[in-house]
């Protein structure tokens, strides 16, 4: 989609939300986008995200109505203490527990009730991932903030951007500081080769911010930070030879059996499989680019240090 005539391109640091859009979802690949703003709404154009949002905050009174169409955005809004402004979310916005009581406007990548959103007439709609490109188009006439971090630092920046947009910069900076300090205090007992799997059929290595998260706890990861979650050549994984494997499968939470990995005939000579060091991590702790990534890193470090 190209910029419409007379539109103003606003550089923005964007979010790359996990490829899961419901409990039965497969994993999907995403693109890099910036937000182009015209008089009516925010649109998406293919561009590399390298800048930060500079426009005026939405909050200019005590009455602000927010709609979040992504679990990661919902969690950030709660962490910033702005939950009273959050008038509607999706059926997938399940954390914290109180978020489940919010008015629902449907699903994430599909099943969004746009008519209901227009009836709400929010001051800002927060969206995520290229799977919501069409949703943003459907929201013509409304203010939309689309976020897509692909690295840990970009996750921090997306939290800051929401803070700037909602006049909560101090709380956002505090949140980022807490996350950084928590990650700095997490270390594995020794450098360890780690592989995380976001989808099992076919196997897809978790990418985006997860490699950076692993590296921050002194782990060595199979992919480079910022790479998309993707399929791979098994021989390359064998050459990497992970000592620990973690399953953070989209939509599964912890409802997945490690035997899915342990029973793969062609994986038997991988060290993690040979030693039975295959573990399950709640996917919402690793696949959502928000404050709870720290908990995901804690789980990884805890499993490794207990097993070593």
Write a concise keyword list for the protein shown above.
308 residues, Rossmann fold, 2 domains, 5-stranded parallel sheet, 5-stranded mixed sheet, disordered N terminus
Written description of the protein model:
This protein has 2 domains: 8-182, Rossmann fold (3-Layer(aba) Sandwich); 186-307, 3-Layer(aba) Sandwich (Rossmann fold), CATH 3.40.50. Helices cover 30% and strands 17% of the residues. The chain has 11 helices and 13 strands. The chain has helices spanning 71-79, 114-120, 133-138, 152-165, 169-184, 210-216, 234-240, 259-262, 271-274, 283-286, 293-307; strands at 8-10, 33-37, 42-46, 66-68, 86-89, 103-104, 124-128, 144-147, 192-200, 203-205, 219-221, 244-247, 278-280. The strands form 3 sheets. A 5-stranded parallel sheet has the order 6-5-4-7-8, covered by helices on one side. Strands 9, 10, 11, 12 and 13 form a 5-stranded mixed sheet that branches. Strands 1-2-3 form a 3-stranded antiparallel sheet. A hairpin with a 2-residue loop joins strand 9 (192-200) and strand 10 (203-205). Residues 1-19 and 21-56 have low confidence and may be disordered.
